[in-house]
Design brief:
Elements (H helix, E strand, L loop, with lengths): L11 H13 L6 H17 L6 H31 L2 H4 L2
């Protein structure tokens, strides 16, 4: 049995419309975290002239590298686990 998968041609406008519809329905997802991060950057950027410099961003990325690698590994593992659990792949 072969299954035909149809893909809709998604545009940025339709994706944003879908996201806004989910937000209005109460599924805000990661919106509070993103808004909080923007607010923190604005507050610390206004308090210090060094905060928004390229050197500081490089330092932040260097310090967060281990956590980023672990998070990427967890994400890839969970994605692979979902992919392997598909019924079509279990027959192979």
């Amino acid at each position: 049995m072969s299954a035909v998968i149809e893909h809709e041609d998604a545009t940025i406008k339709s994706a944003m419309g879908d996201y806004w519809a989910r937000v209005k329905a109460g599924d805000i997802g990661s919106l509070p975290a993103v808004l909080g991060l923007i607010a923190l950057c604005a507050v610390f950027g206004s308090m210090s002239s060094v905060f928004l410099t390229p050197g500081n961003f490089a330092n932040l990325l260097t310090q967060a590298a281990a956590v980023i690698v672990i998070a990427m590994g967890l994400f890839l593992f969970s994605s692979l686990e979902k992919l392997i659990s598909l019924p079509a792949l279990q027959q192979v």
